[in-house]
Amino acid sequence: MRRLTSSLVVVLAIGGPVSAGAQSDGASGSIAAPYGAPVDDQRVYVHGVLEQFEYRAAGSDSVLRWDGEVWVGTDTNRLWVKSEGDVDRHGDIRDGRQELLYDRPITSFFDLQAGVRYDVDSLQDRAWVAFGVEGLAPHFVRLSATVYGADGGRFAARVEASHDARITQRLILQTQFEINAYSRDDLARRIGSGISDIDAGVRLRYEIRRKFAPYLGLSYQRTFSQTAQYARAAGESVRTLSLLIGIRSWF
Fold first, then answer.
1. In sequence order, what DSSP letters do the residues of 152-202 get, joined into one string?
2. Is 217 helix (H, G, I), strand (E, B) or coil?
3. Contact between residue 106 and residue 76 where contact means Cβ atoms under 8 Å apart
C-alpha cells in the first residue's frame, strides 16, 4: 500500500507541470508550447565580408583590387550590397561592379537573388537587371550564378565558385574561379561577345583572429576574343599572372 501511494505521488508530481504547461495562457486563450516560446526567426541581422582587399603585383599590370559584400535582413528576407573593382597604377578604376539584390532562400542551401547591377568605373557606365542563385554546393563549394539584362537587348552571365580547405584551425587554402560572358560586343566598355574573361586564384590565409586574416597567393586573368583585342589596343595584357598580398575580414 505504501509503494502504491508513493507511485501515485511521483506520477502526480511529474504530471502536474505538464498539465499546467498545456493549459491556456490566459487572455489569449491559446495553448502554450510545452518547451517554451518558438524560435524567433524574424530578428534583423547585419553581416559583411571583405573577401578580397589585395595588391596584385604583375609589373605594369599591377592593380589594387577589392571585392566585398554586406547583407541586412532576417533568415528569409535579406538585402545584399556587393561591390568589386580594380585600381590600376594610373589611378583609374577598372571592372567596377556594384549590385543591389533582394535575397530569399529557395532550398536548404541556395538563395534566389534579384535586383540591379551598375557598372561604374573609368569607362562608360552601364546598368543591368540581375537574376541568379547563390549558395553552398556539394563538397562545401560556394557557388554563385547570375544572368543580367540591359538596354539594347544586351545580356550577360557570370559564374563564381570558391572553396576553403582548412589545413589547420587558422591556416586556410582558398581556391577561386570566375567566368564572364556577354551576348554582344560593347565597345564603350571594351567587352566582346562570347566568353569575355576568366579570373582564377589560390590564396593561403592565416586567421590571426577569426575576423582578420592576411594572405598570400597567385591569380591568373585572361581575356578572350574581341575583349582581348580591346585590351591589346589599350596597351593591356591578355594574360596576367599576379602575386597576391592582401587581407580578408568580416563582421
1. GGEEEEEEEEEEEEESSSSEEEEEEEEEEEESS-BGGGTB-SEEEEEEEEE
2. strand
3. no
Contact 84, 99 (CB under 8 A): no
Beta-carbon contacts of 168 under 8 Å, excluding residues fewer than 6 positions away, are: none
Buried/exposed code over 53-84 (b: 16+ C-beta within 10 A; e: otherwise): ebebebeebebbbbbbbbbebeeeebebebeb
Name the strand (E) or helix (H) holding 9: helix 2-21
- Confirm if 97 and 84 have CB atoms less than 8 A apart: yes
* Strand extents, DSSP E, 89-140: 93-105, 110-119, 126-137
Mean pLDDT per block of 10 residues along the chain (251 residues) reads: 42 41 43 59 92 96 97 96 95 95 97 98 96 97 98 96 97 98 95 97 97 98 95 93 98 94
Query: What is the total residue count of the chain?
Result: 251
The pTM for the full model equals: 0.82
One DSSP character per residue, 17-77 reads: HHHHHTSB-STT-PBPPTTSSPP-----EEEEEEEEEEEEE-GGG-EEEEEEEEEEE-SS-
What is the Cα–Cα distance from 205 to 197, expressed in whole angstroms? 26
For 154-211, the pLDDT digits (tens) are: 999 999 999 999 999 999 999 999 999 999 999 999 999 999 999 999 999 999 999 9
Whole-angstrom distance, CA of residue 181 vs CA of residue 20: 64
